[in-house]
Amino acid sequence: MRPKLSIFTDFANTLFPHELEYLMAVQNFSKPLNLKILEQIYSNNTSSGKQREPFDESIDKRTYSYLKKWITETLLKIDVDYFFDWLIETEKKILTDVIVPSDEAVILSNMNKMHPTNYNYIRFYELLQYYRDYLMVRSRTKHNKVVTGFLEVHHEQYFKLKNLNIELDNVTARIVKKIEFHPEEKGYIENFLWEIFFDETLDGYTRYRAVVRLTIHYYNNREFEKQAIVYQHLDNFLKTPVFYSKRILSNYYANRTMMHSKLNELEEAEKYGYLSIQNKNSDYLFYLINLCGVLLKQEKNSEALKLMRKSIPELKNTNNNYYKIGFASFYILTFIANKQIEKAVHFASQYFQTYRKEIFEHRWHLYFTTYLFALINAEKYDKVISICKRYNLLLREKQRVDLPDYLPIIENYYYLSEYMEGKIDQDKLISSIVKSVKPLMKSTYRSRRMSDMIDELGEFLHDEMMKVKAELLR
Predict the structure, then answer these.
(1) Dmax of the chain from CA atoms?
(2) Which helix (H) or strand (E) holds 11?
(3) Are residues 395 and 436 in the same domain?
(4) If you ran DSSP here, which 8-state letter would residue 243 be given?
(5) pTM for this entry
(6) For 36-45, how does the pLDDT look when each residue is reduced to its tens digit (9 = 90+)?
(7) Are residues 64 and 120 in the same domain?
(8) How many Cβ atoms are within 10 Å of 115's Cβ, its own excluded?
(9) What range does the domain containing 39 cover?
(10) Spatial separation of the C-alpha atoms in residues 141 and 468, rounded to whole Å
């Protein structure tokens, strides 16, 4: 039998800290008891490492029902995705001639509240263009005059935003393809995105697109300190109606997970990681992988493996090969971390045989670093050498040398395996590793990753890796 307040408790547990910040700011309860319960939800959902306090069962259930309804309705009023759903549905009704007077009343009501800074301003303007056409052919002069007036007043701003979004599309294509920018161009793109995000006269959608692209830009260039500055400001905006939806919050938490992880702020990364998977969406697997990566860094190995095993059904339901390969790679790592080496090698080998084509098309470097690491842990050094040669992995990796995320991990796994197989001596091993790593030590992020790799190799070759460290300090 479920506890008396299980429905309300489950509902309260789905609320994000930023939602609760907003609710606390706008509440104006006449009953102190309502505020007391809201404060308890806030405390339960924002105090890390603290067990949630159960709700008082002696309070009338109608109070909990009222509060649940108030929270739901208050958040829906500012939910940009909920409003977008209404836009799409209403647009379809207009275009298929099934719109009714009650729909028109809602359109006109929203028009009176619409401002150029609203998140869905562009799509609402386009909805009114369809609606005006609908009115014109039916000689609906009264409503047509009002709608036309709105379109004329906002015409200049609408086209400004459309042109900005075209520029954003062009920038996006280059950022996502990781095209190398000249220093001047890199600075221009960064400033362009920065100015859009911080321009509070623009609509929320355009500003949010800019910050997403700024996030990718900083991630590609491993400039996580700059990303942290932007996110300090974004964090405040997300406590307001500007960008609110559960989807956007989940994405924000996932991005913060990656950012804090790269900055080696692991407690913060774990906190945001768990928030990102609190409400499942189409990106759930991606968010889960980020969280499990953080848990492995903290040596919470059994926790990571439990989470991944629990999410196998989600893996089977996605067609996203990027997510699938990422999941498989971290699944291998969780087996290794939990000393289940045979399972790691078996899973890695089977997955590679089944999805070889997809691996090379999407995330070959991530997959092979984990696959080869599993083989090293299983002392199958000859297999590491064989795979590297068969698929030209060292050459493939070296072709990435000019990319900001270049890390010669496969190269060094190869050197270790050659040494273990007696193909090179100790001096050659040490000089080869130092030569591959030393140019990367000027970058905070890459130097930390290389230090981590050397520590990993030190589990197999302690004395040799101590000599590598000594050489790098010279």
Answers:
(1) 89
(2) helix 6-13
(3) yes
(4) S
(5) 0.85
(6) 999 999 999 8
(7) no
(8) 8
(9) 6-44+56-78
(10) 82
